[in-house]
Design brief:
single chain, about 325 residues, mainly alpha, 2 domains, about 35% helix
Length: about 325
């Protein structure tokens, strides 16, 4: 965990600390929790352009897909969306500016600390089911724009629903140890040796779209196995299989083109003609399908540049003569 301090000198600007190396002192780390509770007011009325940019970011970041109860006809971003995991069921909270159940009493700085440090205004620590480890690499401008958009929404008084987690994961105090041991905020920087398209794709894939948070297997403590980044696994949301999206010849998507990836993110259809299901369908319908073609091409270029990893998470398709189509197709994964 990185010690986070919030400057109290400027009362009109969105700012938060992005400190460098992990501090070894537990006392210093706990002091960071106290510091994170300091707040800075947001400066003035939201810029309409910032709200528009933030709306785009909310789509790209999966906010609408996750924080909307589509099954219950809930208001956009008013919470209630659920995700079943091996650790239990997580319910997404209300992100509208409601004073009692949403973000109405938050400051812009509270939001920045939540997004980049995984801490609530009261000092509580979030579960990594909220992908703040990936969001910590978002630029401050993008986080400011996303905040402007969320604050422009109609307030909705839908109460938040408590997570339904197995012991000991239902004890939030466990998040303190998890963050201290396994979480280090990142600061995204463009790679000068890579083209602009690759850098844009890396930023989107690693941080805003947070693809690796789902497509990378985790250990029993919920820590991503970095050596298997994007290689897929069999313990996805709602007991689904998450595919290997590295360009491995046998077990990945080496035979996919950039156009195939763009088409899937636009339409939800795979090269086989099958459509995706489950959580990934929501992310496409309410997220990636709203992104620009240039951004989707950048994501595709970055994904196809990943190191290929041999990790078969599903048996290959039946031979053509025996294939009956549908769920038996090689890439018909229920995300």
């Amino acid at each position: 965990m990185v010690v986070t301090t919030i400057s109290a000198k400027s009362s009109r600007r969105l700012q938060w600390a992005r400190r460098g190396p992990r501090h070894a002192s537990v006392a210093a780390w706990l002091a960071g929790i106290v510091a994170a509770c300091w707040t800075l007011p947001f400066a003035g009325a939201a810029d309409p352009d910032a709200v528009e940019r933030g709306a785009y970011l909310a789509r790209a970041g999966g906010c609408i897909a996750c924080h909307t109860d589509f099954d219950g006809d809930g208001a956009p971003l008013a919470g209630g969306g659920k995700v079943e995991t091996p650790f239990g069921v997580f319910y997404a909270p209300n992100l509208t500016p409601d004073n009692d159940h949403g973000l109405g009493r938050w400051s812009a700085n509270d939001f920045a600390v939540a997004m980049t440090r995984g801490r609530a205004p009261n000092g509580g620590l979030y579960y990594p089911a909220f992908p703040y480890p990936a969001y910590s690499g978002m630029t401050r401008d993008d986080i400011a724009d996303l905040w402007a958009y969320l604050q422009s929404l109609p307030a909705d008084g839908r109460p938040n629903q408590a997570h339904d987690l197995a012991f000991p994961f239902n004890l939030r105090v466990a998040n303190l140890g998890w963050q201290f041991l396994f979480f280090k905020p990142v600061a995204w920087r463009a790679d000068p040796d890579q083209p602009e398209t690759w850098n844009r794709g890396q930023y989107l894939t690693e941080h805003l779209l947070h693809c690796g948070e789902c497509h990378t297997p985790r250990n029993q403590l919920g820590v991503k196995r970095k050596a298997m980044a994007y290689a897929g696994h069999k313990e996805g949301p709602d007991d689904s299989t998450v595919p290997n999206i590295t360009p491995h010849d046998d077990t990945g998507i080496a035979d996919w083109s950039e156009g195939d990836i763009v088409w899937l993110l636009q339409t939800g259809f795979m090269p086989s003609g099958d459509d995706i299901q489950g959580e990934m369908k929501l992310l496409v319908d309410h997220g990636s399908s709203h992104l620009t073609a240039d951004d989707l091409k950048a994501v595709a270029a970055y994904i196809l540049s990943l190191p290929p990893i041999d990790n078969r998470v599903r048996e290959p398709a039946a031979p053509a003569a025996e294939d009956e189509g549908g769920a038996d197709d090689d890439y018909d994964y229920d995300f």
